[in-house]
Amino acid sequence: MTATLMFDLDGTLIDSLPDIAAAANRMLGDEGKPALPQEIIQKFVGNGLPKLVERVMGHCDIPLDRHSELAKRTLDYYGAASSAQTVVYPGVPEALAQLQQMGCVLGICTNKPEAPARHILDALGLSQFFNTVFGGDTLNTRKPDPAHLHASFDAIPQTGPRLFIGDSEVDAETAQRAKVPFLLFTKGYRKSSIDEIPHMLSYDQAIELPSAVRASLTMLEETA
Questions:
Q1: Quick check: 48 pLDDT over 90?
Q2: Could you tell me the pTM of the whole model?
Q3: Which pLDDT band holds residue 159 (cuts at 50, 70, 90)?
Q4: 8 an active-site residue?
Q5: Which domains does the chain have, with CATH numbers?
Q6: What distances in angstroms separate CA 134 from CA 6, 41, 99, 142, 147, one per listed residue?
């Protein structure tokens, strides 16, 4: 039962919020602004770091004409310590290994810039599982533009059906626009209720992912 599986990264395979928040708060400290709690910054995650910085600036009443400067500074801070506090969600390596044993080919499609994404995958021992990594700056577009997801799939020789696995409204919208079945990880950075996010199947823990993939592929076979 083979398939090509494309994964979101932040909030799906890893909890990177502490390092993202640290970089944003370091930038705010430079501007004489108080640090924001992680639960506030989590609301701004999902559309890439430049958009996160724009949302942070708006929240903190920093003029948006400085966005380019502050986004670059935040990215520099993040790039210097992108894996300091980031952790892999429990069971992820085991689930990825099992998916490979099933014959699935895996890739990453994330709005995180490609260089930090690759660094984190290396630092956390996950690089071995993925045939391709598309970041938010790999192309001139990013999720929810379906071209980002299509290009990441096209970088891998096609093996069976395609599935996209993510944790957020942005991921679900991307999958819908790309016409790719979507599996939802429910414990990531979503802002809406599970019922409000379009998905084929959902799972709560990584240990459940191989079974969810099998069930999804069976459903696709039955409707083919």
A1: no
A2: 0.92
A3: confident
A4: yes
A5: 4-15+87-223 (3.40.50.1000), 17-80 (1.10.150.240)
A6: 10, 24, 20, 9, 11
